[in-house]
Amino acid sequence: MKTTYTTGRTYDEPQVLEIEIEARTEDEFGLEEITATFRDRSRHISGRVNAIVFPDGIGPAVLAEYDAGRYQAI
């Protein structure tokens, strides 16, 4: 699955994360965990994250991991 997430931030250009879900699982509490790659063209950074998806969605989950530096550069 591919999606985009507009963060509302601007660097070289407006920040839009291009996200591709590689794997999804759901735990016993119904929380979804994903492994996803992202591309941030505005900052020229690409990476892979593992994230728990809360009701606000995949984009915020990926952005939170990215902001915290919890991603593997690719």
Distance between the termini: 19 Å
Largest sheet geometry = 5 strands, antiparallel
Low-pLDDT ranges: none
Compute the CA-based radius of gyration. 12 Å
Give the rounded overall mean pLDDT: 96
Helical content, roughly? Answer: 10-25%
Number of strands: 5
Strand order of the largest sheet: 1-2-3-4-5
Helix and strand composition category: mainly beta
Give the strand content. over 45%
- Helix-strand pattern: EEEEHE
Brief summary of the model shown:
Helices cover about 15% and strands about 55% of the residues.
Could you please describe the fold and organization of this structure?
The chain is mainly beta and 74 residues long. Helix content is 14%, strand content 57%. It is built from one helix and five strands; from the N terminus they run E-E-E-E-H-E. It has one helix at residues 58-67, and strands at 2-10, 14-26, 32-40, 45-53, 72-73. The protein has a five-stranded antiparallel sheet. The two termini are 19 Å apart.
How would you describe this structure in keywords?
five-stranded antiparallel sheet, mainly beta, 5 strands, 74 residues
Question: Which helices and strands, and how do they pair?
Answer:
Layout: E1 2-10, E2 14-26, E3 32-40, E4 45-53, H1 58-67, E5 72-73
Antiparallel strand pairs: 1-2, 2-3, 3-4, 4-5
